[in-house]
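the two lines:
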Amino acid sequence: KQEVTQIPAALSVPEGENLVLNCSFTDSAIYNLQWFRQDPGKGLTSLLLIQSSQREQTSGRLNASLDKSSGRSTLYIAASQPGDSATYLCAVRWYSSASKIIFGSGTRLSIRP
Amino acid sequence: NAGVTQTPKFRVLKTGQSMTLLCAQDMNHEYMYWYRQDPGMGLRLIHYSVGEGTTAKGEVPDGYNVSRLKKQNFLLGLESAAPSQTSVYFCASSYSTGGPPSYNEQFFGPGTRLTVL
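prediction for all of em together
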């Protein structure tokens, strides 16, 4: 079964720290992986999308990496700010079922001022 | 562009009532999706559509029906609502799974919060 796991479920760090969020997936034959941000009571905002042929993508203070062989992706956030507090979700699309994506349950991030 | 919009934003139903959630997108996307989000469970795919007139089941399709009569609209119906269907429902759309990477990116609506009593 194709599954996506995000551990930990919640994370709290002081402002200014660099941090890493983890996403693991079964079945390395992925088509792409997408990281989203969700603020409380809001919809999802796409942060970064990594195609299977790519190793990483960067946007501002965010860097997402992909290691298909180990079934892992990480989202690196540099110099964290209170405004980064949100839930971060990763979602995977596999070649075998490319018309749909499977979400992890998310990591709720809290940045302490 | 409005992007992906959902109506209504909130709804309270009694057990056994029916309702339809509307999703609309103005980005000419081929693919549209309905998800539900429950605490601690992430988003689960209910149904999806890869083009006008086509629909397919996702992970949790039971108790729901969908229709894609127009490319820009994707409707989610609950024929006989149950308390287990209390959730936040999200609609999303994307171009396709081919083409440049940007075509694969999913865009989400703001969600519909449904409570079934």
